[in-house]
Amino acid sequence: MKGLSIALTVFAVLRAVSGTTAEGFSISSGPRQVALVELFSSEGCSSCPPADRWLGSLEQASGLWADFVPVAFQVDYWDTLGWKDRFGSKANTQRQIAYAETGKSSGVYTPELMLNGQEWRGWGRVSEITKSLKPDAGVLTLKVARTNQLEATYRPPTESSGQWDLTIAWVGSNVVTDVARGENSGRKLPHHFVALKRLVVPLVTSELGSRATLACEPPTGIDGVRLALISWVSQRDSQTPFQAAGGWWLK
């Protein structure tokens, strides 16, 4: 796949983090791997708030966007115990189950942290993230115009082969839920980097690279949320993230 350029129309922000401007928004991962940190959580789980708070602490970490991209996937299997998580979904649960079924994690539970598609028990130590990064995971570049017309380019390492999928996700911080029932009854639960909208796009290659176009509209109906757009690439036969990029929609 030498010289392969995978181009897709997708939103963007700069690896160092840039803001929305009249000209649009853009980012690039650079060749070193940017880790995807996934938290599987639920508003119905009494042991989840400490992990949710830890994920929120990454907003102030120096490696945010440059070394790692965080995302919280709210699952739905706690919904039958008295409280329905408004951000929970079957798709998030199925992603967690798939990790367990392919041996990437030891089971399906909350809170569970995954680092680059592998179960991560030492998630309190941010320094472990950089130790796990590949020196060359290809370059993922994302751009968006004022019209929300999205463009993405992925150039994988020369030794990589196969077909690629691109996942695009809108995530939100500064979101608070007043939980009225269930294990967290009476608590105000803040959310950070919670997945609000997700789309997986197959990248189709040609001699000129792989291209696709789509519109990427931010989610609506959530007041006070601080939005970010994140993205990662994975091989067609695996959901394991290979390279990631992301940044705040507004500074």
What attributes does this structure have?
251 residues, mainly beta, 4-stranded antiparallel beta sheet, 3 helices, globular
The quaternary state of the protein chains shown equals single chain
Please count the beta strands (DSSP E, at least 2 residues each): 14
H/E series? EEEHEHEEHEEEEEEEE
Tell me the span between the first and last alpha carbons: 36 Å
Low-pLDDT runs of 5+ residues are 1-22
Q: Strand content of the residues, in percent? A: 25-35%
Ordered list of secondary-structure elements with their pairings:
Elements: E1 6-8, E2 25-28, E3 35-41, H1 49-57, E4 68-74, H2 90-101, E5 112-115, E6 118-119, H3 127-131, E7 139-144, E8 150-155, E9 164-173, E10 175-178, E11 188-191, E12 194-202, E13 226-235, E14 243-248
Parallel strand pairs: 3-4
Antiparallel strand pairs: 1-8, 2-7, 3-5, 5-6, 7-8, 9-12, 9-13, 10-11, 13-14
